[in-house]
Write a structure and sequence with these properties.
alpha+beta
Length: 180
Amino acid sequence: INAVSEASKIINVLKNFDSGNEDDELGSPTLTPTIVSGGEASNVVPDTCEIRIDRRTVPGEGMEEFMERLEMFMENIDTQADVSVGRAANNSPLLGAFRTSEENNLIKSLEKVSQGDIRPFNAVCEASYFAPEVPVAVFGPGKLKDDEGGIAHSMREYVDKGEVEIAGRTVISMVESYLD
């Protein structure tokens, strides 16, 4: 059994994974294969293959629930391979989705000072570590993507100097406004 060939089947079927969770603002959670590792040499049929996935949640979905649903889903995949589901070796936490109410003073202050649109942030960041304890907002210069595709974490990632200067002034004004 070629584990890499079986992995390609599994990746194709993973497109159908649906946790049943959906958020009015953030939409559906995503499940994206990001790393596939298998094989030792070009003339040896690989007997193992590892697929790493990135999970982007919506509010209300935790790691335990996700892992249970994924395990049940994987049990029903038609493959010749022995399949197991586990956490990454680094045991990194699932960066959970969060929502800070638009009525929160932090959000109102940021909206007033920045004169920008308040919208859901549908990417992952460390703010989710703090969201259960304190109100958080994701704010800053730059773009996640443009017409050509992704910018963040890509070879063409950039931030305009002028946007950094504006963001700096906005943060100072926002903190002053928030403390009043």
